[in-house]
Structures are given as C-alpha cells and as structure tokens.
Amino acid sequence: MSEVREVEVAIIGAGTAGLTAMGMVRRHTKNFVLINGGSLGTTCARVGCMPSKALIQVAEDFHRRHLFERFGIGGMESLSIDVSEGMEHVRELRDTFVDRVISNSTDTLEEGQFIEGYAKFLAPTLLEVNGAQIRAHKVIIATGSRPVMPQAWLALRDKIMTTDEFFEQADFPPRMAVIGLGVIGLEIGQSLKRMSVEVTGFDQLKTIGGLQDPVASQVAIEIMSKEFPLYLGQAAQITQEGEQLRVTSGEHSVLVDKVLASLGRRPNVANLGLDNLGAPLDARGVPVYHPNTLQIADLPVFIAGDVTGDKAILHEAGHEARIAAYNALHDTVMAFKRKTPLAITFCDPNIAMVGKAWNELDQSRLAIGEMPLGPVGRALIMGKNKGILRVYGDKQTGKILGAVLMGPKGENLAHLLAWAIEQKLTVFNLLAMPYYHPVLEEALQAALYNLMSQVEIKPSLPVELQPL
Amino acid sequence: MSEVREVEVAIIGAGTAGLTAMGMVRRHTKNFVLINGGSLGTTCARVGCMPSKALIQVAEDFHRRHLFERFGIGGMESLSIDVSEGMEHVRELRDTFVDRVISNSTDTLEEGQFIEGYAKFLAPTLLEVNGAQIRAHKVIIATGSRPVMPQAWLALRDKIMTTDEFFEQADFPPRMAVIGLGVIGLEIGQSLKRMSVEVTGFDQLKTIGGLQDPVASQVAIEIMSKEFPLYLGQAAQITQEGEQLRVTSGEHSVLVDKVLASLGRRPNVANLGLDNLGAPLDARGVPVYHPNTLQIADLPVFIAGDVTGDKAILHEAGHEARIAAYNALHDTVMAFKRKTPLAITFCDPNIAMVGKAWNELDQSRLAIGEMPLGPVGRALIMGKNKGILRVYGDKQTGKILGAVLMGPKGENLAHLLAWAIEQKLTVFNLLAMPYYHPVLEEALQAALYNLMSQVEIKPSLPVELQPL
C-alpha cells in the first residue's frame, strides 16, 4: 500500500467556490490540493450565468425590432434570426469566459496541487482519490450541483435537455416546452421565444421566478404570459408521441419537439462518502453545517457553494468559500455575517428579490411602498414600462426590510436596495439621497415615497432636507 | 393707482424649481402667487432631459444593428431611419411629459394663484407684473436659464439652433456641426450621427463632457472620436458660405448645413430688476446667495434652480427649491446639506462624475482605483465593453471621495457611488457589499479592489468578511 500524502488543506471541487477557497488558501500555504472530477470551468461560466446572459442579449436585441416602427426605423420585417449563428456566438463568449477561469486558476498550479479525479471521504480527514489516499488537516467540500432530472424522464433523455446540454445545441426545433419556471426557465424560455421558437412553459407551482409576494407574482405571470403561454399549478407529465413529446399539465397538453427541464439543481453529494464524516446529513444527503462558519458539525471539514443546496448563486458561493477558507486556515472557527439576500432573474423585465422574502416578513409591522412601472418616464422612453416595484419597510421605524422588483434595470435597483439593507438604512435615509433625472432610480424613489406615507414615525423636517 | 396685492410668498418662474417650491408652499398657505413669463412646462420636459433621452433611445436602437451580424441576426442592411418619424416620436413623448407637468401643477391652481407675465423687482419684497404691484413677504426667484448664443452668430441664427429649437426640427440636413461638447453636445451629437447625420464636433476646451480627470478625459475623447470627428482646444468660428456655414477651429474647417450651438446655459436674470434688491450681483448678474440656505444676502428673498448659474440639473433644482421654500416658510433661516455632486451624460457609454471633482482633490492623499471596461464580462456580452471607471479614495483611510465613470450603465453605478459618498463609506465598506454576477457593478467592485490595494490602512480580516 502506497504512502498517505499529507496536506494542510484539501479542496474538493474546482468550481467557483473551490477556486475562490483555493485563492485564499494558496496565499497561506503551498501544501494544499485541489481535486476536481469532471469538466473544468465553473458552472457559472460553462452552463450558467454567463452563457445565459449572452443568449438573453441576442434575444433582446432581436426583440427590440418591435419598437422600430414607433422609432422611425424601417425594414424590421427584413430581420431574421439564424439561431445556430446566435448559439455559435453564445458559445464563443462562453469559451472566452471558461478559458479565462481556467487560465487564472488551475493552469497556475504547481505539480501535485491539482488532481483530476473524484474524491471520497474514508474518514473526516482522510480522502481517497484515484486509488491514492490523502490525509488533509482541513477539508473544504465544494462539489457544486447538477440539474434535477426526474427518473421517469430518463427514457426520453435524448429529447429532454437541461442546461448541461442546452448551450451545446446547434439549433432548436420549432416547438419546445420549458418545464420549471424559476430563474433558468424564465430566462431561457423567454429568449427561445424571442428567437422564434414556439415555447410553452410549465411549473407545478402557482407562481414563477420564485416569487412569493402575491402582487408581484400576479404581475409577473401577466407579463410573462404575454411572452409565451404558461401552465401553472400542476406537475407536468411527458409522454412520447411518435417523434414528438406530449407535455401534459392537468387539462392542458401540448405537443413539442424537445423539452428543457429547468427544475432546479441538486447538490453533488453522491459518491463523496459523506457517511464517513460521522456527521448528520439532511434529507438530500448534505451534511448539516453552520451557515456562519460553514463548518460541518465540529469537524475540520467545511462546505461552500452550490453543494450546500442553499443559495446556489455565484456571489454567495464566493462568499461561502471565503468563510470556509478563512476557517480552514485558522485554529479557531469564526462566525461571519451572511450577505443580504439578493436574487436576480435576468428576464425582461428583470425580476429581483432583495432582503427578507415575503414569507419571512412580520405582516403586523409591514408597510409596502409600491410603484408600477407604467407611468415611469424613462421606462416609457425605453419602451419597457412594464412591471412593479414593492419595497418592504417596518411600519413603525421605516427601516428597509426587503423588496421585490419587476422592471427594467431591476438588476441595478436591486443593488442599491441590497446595499441599503446591508447598512440598515430607513426609508428616510434613502429619500435624502440624490436621484438623477430621468433614471429608473426615480421609480424606486416613488416607491419609497409611497412607503414613507405609511410609516408611523414622521421626520419633523421634509425628508429630502438634512440640516447642515 | 391700483391697490397693491399682498401675498405671503411670490415664486417667480414655473419650471422645476418654481413648481417644487410651489408644491411645498401651497401646503402651508393659499395666499401665494406663481408668476411665469414664457412657455409653461419645465426646461427638463420641454427641451432638456426628457426629449434628449427619447432621441438617444431611438439612436441607440438604430445603432445596435451593427451588432446584429455577430448575434446571428440577418437583414440589418435593410434597416433605415426616417429621422422625421423619429423626431415625431420624440415630440410625442415630450408632449406627454410636458402635459403631465402642467396638469399636475399650474392647472391645479386657484384663481389668482397663477399669473402669466414677467415679474420685476421694484424693491426686495415689491414686484411688478403686467403693470400691477405685488407685495410679497417672501420671494423665491426661479426663472431658470437659457442657452448661450454668442452675439456674433445672431446674424446666422436661422441656421444655428440651440436646444430651444432642436426638438422642433422636422428633419435634419445631411451635415451638421455641434459646437460645445458638454452634456448636450455629446448626447445630441452622438445621436444625430447614429441617425445618419454627418456630424462634426467642436469645443474650445481640450476635454469633453466636462471631464477634468486627465485619464478619463483621454479615454472619452478616444471613444467619442470614433463616433464623430472632434476638434478641440480652439473656439469655433462660423462664416456663411452660400447656403452653408463654414465652421473653423484653428487649421480645421468644415462646411455644414446647420449648427447646433450647445455652449451651455446662462441664468435668466435680465429684466428682473435685480439691482433693486440692493444685494451684490456676480459677474453674470446673479445675486450672491448662500448655497446652504439659498438666501440672497439677509433679504427675505431666495433663489433656486438653473437661475443660480451653479448646478443646472433637475434634481439639484428640486433640492434647492425645497431649501428655498422651507426657508421662505419659516421665520428663522436654516442651513441644509447639499447633495453629493452627481452629473451624468447619457451618451454611449455614459459619462458620470460623482462626489469631488478632479480639481478639488487633495492629490497628496489621493488613491485611484481603476478598472477599464474592456475585459468586463457583462459589458462584453452587451457589446459595450468600452470605457473606464476611476474611483477616488483617501489613501490613508480608504474613504470614497468621488469617481469618474465612463461605461455602460454608468448612470446606475453613479447612483451606488453617490449614495455611498452621502454615507461617508470607505472602500472597505463597499467591498463587503453583495455584488451579483454577471453585472456591471462587478466592474465597480474591481475598481474598488484596485483602490483598496493602494490604501495604507488594511483591515485585519479579508475585506469581504464581517464578523457576526
């Protein structure tokens, strides 16, 4: 039996979380190992945030032609989209981003610091990779996630794609169903429709985009229903019908050529030997961990990124990785603040949720500042005056608690609000800020005025004025 | 001689500042008068921010066709722009915005509260309007501004337009010069060029867009020079040549059909009888006022908006009006904080300046965080990866002092920075905020990391981590 290699830190997974953790670890020690099974390049760059944004941009630019007549631009009827060329462009950008990730990370490692292979825990600090054993003082689990694919659909897998295959498609057939209308379903479903695919959307929930707020949910369903038909509230079934697939949801059914299954992602925990940690696992098989230390039980083992099954977003993966790496590198485990929740769906208009979600709010102290996008000057000018902003505040103090936004530049307004919530600002603080004209930030200002009108404590001075 | 009417507050001018002041005054008293000479509707809605943004949107959408081939969209060569239809669309939107202003303001006033006419001071609290006299306990001067037009060009006035005439044009001739490359010159010059007018730009300064920062200025000149030729550093001369105008700047000269003179705006102070205030006037004839009280000398007279000749931007006009109105309504004059400076040019890419300007910075304590837009992922996806972000910080403490931005979504990033400066945040505070992926806010994050690397005080923990 070969010698057991000993390292200070072992990081399992070279995605966003693993690479971020590695970036911190390598500043402290050369004696670490990064172990990765499967493709290099993060989920984000390969099959997630980046290629989806490139697809959305192409679809959006093609879609803008419907404004051309109003703008005095002639010839829009001559425009056509070659989806295979569009996808080629998306892949070119994707390859640029993937190459960048790899050349900035694994390519820079020294001999032995990187192992291609699947790691398995034999004990909390003992790993097996490619038949060899590694004893690590500390371990960071960052194995990421994979798309959910129901067992029942595996037989039809050649006509049912996930994001793992989506961006490899040379072209799309005339009719597709998108099953699962969360972030990915909305972003890709709308883009496909705008690129001339006949799309039908399904979700077993009665809402879309993860929206809990009943008003915003209604507005989102109304807006997105005009993009493509949505069937909500019942799980979709798929059956083969000749060369096609029949997707059925309750009384509705539609015949399509292919299906995009966008049912969410599940943590990559199988085959990791997590039972050998001796720590409790949750129903999905994810070790129970502390959200502020990322530590698993009291083990020298930490977890970060999509594999936690919690906040599968790049910036949270990075943050978790920093916490995990910090704790892996120090003798005493420290608890850190988590970021203000921030979730963005880059459909058009954007959907964003910031801070406390609807279901977490204390309704007895809740005031909601609301502004529909319809009359907003700049939104009208952009030809994008659809949506609604709802800002949640404490009705006694005016403290901003959260928001749900559907509107153009929602992604940007969401940052303003998230940063305000990070600083525990009130509606009064925010109304004293400058708002340029004419910008979408003024729609937020209007929502904040509406919120302020409902807050019990009123400032003695006009809210825009602050004594010198 | 008729009786002198007595009012609590007289407001001269029904633009943004006058209407904002009126909105506050009417909540305290019915006994006020709003006096307006000339057209109703604010400069912003009639000839400023709103129609220019509508023009920019049309031009931008037409310009995006150059990305179509890359995106797999065919037929761009069939697109054409009918400028007269585009301008018709711009005017339709403008009329909507002007109507909205009027119906929300002067239309709601009672008999006698609104007078059409030009007011003149006979004494600090005695006005003459349409031959009648008004005694006002307090007066707010809000007469706005008008475009600068050199005396020498008046003879050629039918071929030289300002923004006062620009949006009334049914169409534009094939060749135009834009003289003055500040906000308006850049916004309109670039839009005209994108709408197929052959545009040449001139400015007597060696910079454009009001940029003082030498690096940003150079980047802006490089980017905008690719849009249309710029001749900088010498005052332009105009001479008639047949039916055309020859515009000459040093050795360069160009023959054009019409000229847009965008040389800035001057305060409307002539014929107001300001000599009769008995207060000192500056070189332009504007009464000297206190920037935090908006009071003129120790008179019961206040000034707000473009007429101050200082910050001719809508949101500052509104803020000044609130300060002026507050002080006009109270016995004791109070000094208020001014907003963090925020200036945006909505050319493509946007140019924005926030906080302290280059010339106001203490260079001995200055650290500059810089990020070029070239490699920024989302900017690449948008086909807009041009520009640079420069964030100014105190190199001892890391406090954010100001920024100059040239890039896509500069208008939105500028708000994040202005709000941060309002709260006196440091680069460390900002780097602890959430940044979603992939968004332009990440380019700001990169500039902030670059800034932090130059700051003398370093936090003991990684900057992204905050103890719970």
Give structural notes.
With 468 residues, chain A is an alpha/beta fold. Chain A folds into 3 domains: 5-147 and 266-329, FAD/NAD(P)-binding domain, CATH 3.50.50; 151-263, FAD/NAD(P)-binding domain; 342-452, FAD/NAD-linked reductase, C-terminal dimerisation domain (Enolase-like, domain 1), CATH 3.30.390.30. Chain A is built from 13 helices and 24 strands. The first copy, chain A, has helices at residues 16-25, 43-47, 49-63, 68-71, 83-103, 163-166, 183-194, 214-225, 314-329, 377-382, 410-422, 427-431, 441-452, and strands spanning 5-12, 32-36, 73-74, 80-81, 114-116, 119-123, 126-129, 132-141, 145-147, 160-161, 175-179, 198-203, 230-232, 237-241, 244-249, 252-256, 258-261, 265-267, 301-303, 342-345, 350-355, 366-372, 388-394, 400-407. In chain A, the strands form 5 sheets. In chain A, strands 1, 2, 5, 6, 7, 8 and 19 form a 7-stranded mixed β-sheet that branches. In chain A, strand 7 and strand 8 form a beta hairpin. In chain A, helix 1 (16-25) packs parallel to helix 9 and helix 3 runs parallel beside helix 7. Chain A is globular and about 75 Å long. The mean pLDDT of chain A is 97. The interface between A and B is large, with 86 and 87 residues.
